Records
---
Amino acid sequence: MEKLNLESSDIIQKNIEIIGSLFPNVITERRDKAGNITKGINFKLLKQELSGDVIDGEECYEFTWVGKKAAIVEANKPIRKTLRPCFEESKSWKTTGNLYIEGDNLEVLKLMQAGYLNSIQVIYIDPPYNTGKDFIYKDSFKMDRNKYEEQMGLYDEKGCRLFQNTVTNGRFHSDWCSMIYPRLRLAHRLLKEDGVMFISISDLEVDNLKKIGNEVFGEENFLADIIWQSTKSVTNTAIISVSHTHNLVYFKSMDYYVKHREKFRLAVEGEGFANPDNDPRGKWKADPFQVGGWRPNQQYEIVNPKTGVVYKPNANCSWKNDYHKFQELLKDQRIVFGKTGEGAPQRKRFIWEAEERGKVAKTIWNDIETTTNGTQLIKKIFAGLSIFDNPKPVELIKRFLKLATNPQENCMILDFFSGSATTAQAVMELNAEDQGNRKFIMVQLQEPCNKESEAFKVGYKNICEIGKERIHRAGEMIVSEYNDKETINTLDIGFRVFKLDSTNMKDVYYAASDYHQAMLEGLESNIKDDRTDLDLLYSIILDWGLPLTLNHNVETIAGKAVHMVEKDLLAACFADKISETVIREIAQRKPRLAVFRDSSFTGSADKINLEAIFKFLAPNTSVKVI
């Protein structure tokens, strides 16, 4: 029995917990004066978290690599980029809740921090496996061999090698760790409290990935390494044929799932359930009534009423329930003695009970499709063409989604190494099967297709073109295959395309103090000449922390185009020489945010008038200019 504390709260430990919730990687262990192990703070690492520059000095014992400090800085560094809408490459723009974003995922994840913080239910990624080839993500902290050896201290001051063996391979591990680390840090922030992350990886980097994952998520939030049999074929030329892929699973909060275990379950398929005795309660399955472990109140004799045989629990075992509960079950006709009534006691478990509890997933998955099935599906979608190498099978991603999502809840699924967009197809298929309302966000770098590949030869210049076309074709295929479903006509098979680009604003917007007055007067606008009103609108939506799938329409007020987002959530007018009539009409709508171009007003007097109108008609509206 625990004793009452009977003392005030430990403020220091509370502060450590708060810091740990923000930066789980800085939490360490130390001994107090009494010799007890307590939580502490790695202040050097915390200092690095709060610094915009690389902090010099020796690094203490921890999982580290050359370039880690730079990777931390990179994760926290702001960028001047935006996402530009691409209507012509989208599908069902006005009605879809799905996104396809082209660009470097590190920068896209940074841009998503405002609008999607604590909003994503599931993140699945299949990052580069670091097979020895240079992976395509070349971040600013990646280094060449000479730089690596310099930082590792492999040469003395005379340029002589300090160690007999080179560690060139370590450089590739460092590059890979520096690539994945900031991306996982940013992704972690996007997950909801009950969010789950699944990461597919090979043996080559699984050890490093788990160490990084434990640091980013906290070791206590690691759930499992699911071993998936990814191939059934054998490589006869190998010393041992690798037939599996690791899938690391992390919770945003293990505490949440400890309290809600039923939320991470697979559906019961119904195999093994029958009703041989016509029980009015429906189909059932006979479970063993004996369990492991010796419990004194669950040791008693059970007599088979048909044979008279007396049964006792085996050594170091017990019956599942105490004697009083057993009598209740027997009276309720839930105890059976085998198929013929002549065996040991068993307990009926009805299918509806199993469905309520769900099925616990195991860590070995050899009952699901392989990479070969993924390749065959790609060929089916693209009329027999081998358009993409080694895609994951849809059924694998669907099983992840079945574990971590509820069809009755709206949720978002993010894949920021989306490749051929298998995850998007999995989301659409599962929605078709269970009438769910899951939405996907695919992020993919515009990685060029090999000029010798079949994809390039038939016209696909980069991976994004393959991904978008796959979503388009797969969506139509799903609608056709599931046309017997009542809700199939409302299935969301569309997607909005956005492309990462430089900021919409000229340099003067960010550093006006660097320009003298004559230069400023010569500039007609802060905005780049090639940017449209819709480019500006969606950069504002992104910057203001709103999702990119909000509805918007354009109204004409006094001859000027006014963009209204989600009715009166946001109002924006980027026209020149806006009249007071336009301003008053917008203010009377009382939007939460109103945005105008700075160049729309001829002078300070006009801006003062703008503020006065909103202060009078819409005092709660936030008014901004760009």
---
Amino acid sequence: MSALSLDLAKQHMKVDGTAEDDLISLYIDAAETWAANYIGKPLADFDPIPADVKHAVLKLVAFYYEVRSIATYGLSVDMAPQGVTAILDSYRERWFGDGE
């Protein structure tokens, strides 16, 4: 189950037309994977997916879309826009020895 739809991502980024649908879909998948890895569990484990988690994924999709030339060269792989990690921190799985 995807955290958000292609249509919602396009609305968020104010993208019209279908020329970049495949690219945006790729960014949605990448953002959802990044978020799941960050919190330590699949987003599909949430039922329903919380609105703030969707918001974090939307921010990450928009970031990937806006800085795609940087991402192409691998410079932004570990970067996330301000606020994404802050939103996801409350959902993060903590393990013994994780500093908490």
---
Amino acid sequence: MARFIVYLEPAEEGGYIASVPALPGCVTQGETKEEALVMAEDAIRGYIESLKKHGEPLPSGLDKAEVETVTVDVA
């Protein structure tokens, strides 16, 4: 099993856009945060299946990802 960071951003038209930075182009959306995360899981599975099907290497270092936040005054 591998853990993936999923970014959730509010979509202009409503709902949320979910993107997976470790997998370029792996982007999906959902009406709620929960739905967007479920859709992201499905998109990740499909992405990995496609890599395997085409003999492409899996991204390395997936289990080493960490998330930190910083606060910056932008005023």
---
Amino acid sequence: MKSKYVFLLLLFIIGNRSVKGQFEYNNLSYVVEDIPVDSLQMLNLVLPESVKNAPLLIWIGGGAWSYGDRHVEMKLARNLAKQGIAVASVGHRLSPAVWRDPSLSKGVIHPAHIEDVARAVKWLSDHAQEYGYDGDKFFIGGYSSGAHLASLLSLDSQYLEKYDLNPSIFKGILPFSGTFDIPHYREILRNGARPELAEQHVDAVFGSDSLIQVSASPMTYLKNLSSPILILSDNDLHRYTRHFEDALRQTDFRKVEVIYTFEFGHGALWRNLSGEEESPHRNRMVSFIKENAMRPKG
């Protein structure tokens, strides 16, 4: 019996820790209590110790909807927490990726990923007081495929409405280096160096029905945009950002900031944001959040 309690204590210590200036909670299930410890449907939470009721950035990492990991986003989360921002690194179920590794042949299809993120937002809304971040100062963002999910959840209200929430819960949106028009993305891949990615990658994530791909595209819902948006793009994916920006400029919404970082490729920008001791682009994330945290709700 004693050894059992020691084991449980060790699990608690491993899952939750305090580093200088921060509190960290790992492997928090946003679905049910009794799920495997290695489940994808979990989030990690980092809180700045010195800031009471800090604004919360709900962050979704990249990985082509197929091989993301909430844990690899923790460097970014910790760096943001140093600057007074609470961060939830959200995991979600993954799609097949045989184009990357033949063994990755099983997985989910849209809308499973976005439904997971919506459930995570509901959990975070319900537990704000318990963990001590500000439930009225939510921001959502992500990198690569995470940028797609963050912007889709912010623009298509159906996923949050299942939980009596709506996109006005977000005071700002930070989609970085993503794709926002799935048919456009598929067409570019089909005409590129690896045309098989149109089916093995895009169709494996969203299905082959073009209407569903349109409905899974943030571009489809631009008329719903009501929260300030900060878009950051690397040199490799700038064509997708430009396509999205051009559509945004056709709307009446003007709280839009787009930054193109042509000095960084896709992986290099993520590494700069996450791991560099000094990153002007990460600093812009922080200032964007702090500027908009005081914006009236709704």
